Amino acid sequence: MKKLTPSFVVLVLLLVLNASLFADDSESKLERIRVSADGSHFVGATTGNRFIVWGVNYDHNHDGLLLEDYWHDQWDTVVDDFREIKRLGCNVVRIHLQFSKFMKTTDKPDSQNLKQLNRLITLAEQTKLYLDITGLGCYHKQDVPAWYDDLNEGMRWEAQSRFWAEVAKICKRSPAIFCYDLMNEPIIGGAAPQSEWLAGELGGKHFVQRITLTPGERSRELIAKAWVERLAKSIRNDDQQTMITVGVIPWAHTWPNAKPLFHDPVVGKPLDFVAVHFYPKKGNIKGSLEAIKVYDVGKPLVIEEMFPLKCSLKEMDEFIDGSQDFTDGWVSFYWGKTAEENSQAGDIRGAMMAQWLEYWQSKSQELLQATD
Question: 346 versus 308: which is more confidently predicted?
């Protein structure tokens, strides 16, 4: 047997030490996030430390392409974007999964996109970012298959349940999954039958979706409760740990007497926290704060979408500061261009986005210091 010299032993020890320093220990540094024992806020499942959400929606790129449109051919772009999101001081990325990209038929999933989702989860672990996974998207109407639109309510809910079952199977292993958001802005209309599942169009996309076309004599609460329970059950069959929510339009911002529907105590019983999409109104920050307090129902509250579309940057800052006492997180937008790249665009949109991203980064540091 060859004798080991002292210099060789030292070299081996140095190599081992060096390897340990550069090893990917991403999973060891991420802990699952859950609701606190008293139900009021988020905590790390291991440490018990309070967790405040500070994130962005990564719903499309600068050209309006959805994530599944480019995550196969432009994976390096996705990696760079996640790194930039981390540099902004964020801890959560909200991604939006399109139903048609994950279900080929009512019961046959798309294995390639499920594999890519798994790859994205690994990237989230490596960059220490949690994922808010919003599903059942039909944002590009032209991509929605005719067979899906032709399903009746019961069959559509069954297909949606299968979607979530397949996604949960992939996601359940990872502590990087912050939550499942069942659908972006579901709505229930009046008793009159409807002909279209998608409601309205904004910038070439359909963000609002009906969960029934035939409410009939059923109450809105009864319909919402049945839908939430069915989809939540399909997730819980595989994943009993990850939190579940629904991102909703805060109708109290439009009608002061409006009450939460999907986050009603009975309807939203399977949901772990409240998620609302909020765009404060210019000159009425006080009223905006009063409206959002309607959704402070005894669970953690996250403003899952926000941007100064209808108010100034100063007013938005006032809104964030004013909501800190009862809000557990804020999520804005990142569309694939840094503040510097936006400022170099030489247009109003770029200048506005550059200013906002610079603010978002500086505000993250302020909030972290306040919660340490």
Answer: 308
Q: Cα(34)–Cα(115) distance, rounded to whole angstroms?
A: 26
Checking if the pLDDT of 157 tops 60, the result is: yes
Q: What pLDDT band is residue 370 in, cutting at 50, 70 and 90?
A: low
Distance CA 308, CA 315 (A): 8
Tokens standing for 105? Answer: 């038929």
CA distances from 86 to 81, 83, 200, 360 (A): 9, 5, 33, 12
Distances 172 to 6, 40, 56, 244, 265 between C-alpha atoms, Å: 47, 24, 22, 12, 26
| Distance separating alpha carbons of residues 321 and 323, to the nearest angstrom | 6
Q: Which residue carries 């430390």 as its tokens?
A: 49
CA proximity to 181, closest of 231, 241, 132, 226: 132
DSSP state, residue 101: H
CATH architecture of 44-371: Alpha-Beta Barrel (3.20)
Q: Quickly count: other Cβ atoms within 10 Å of residue 240's Cβ.
A: 9
Structure tokens at 21: 């320093």
Q: Where are the domains of the chain?
A: 44-371
271 or 347: which leads in pLDDT: 271
Backbone phi, psi, residue 10, to 5° = -60, -40
pTM of the predicted structure, to 2 decimals: 0.91
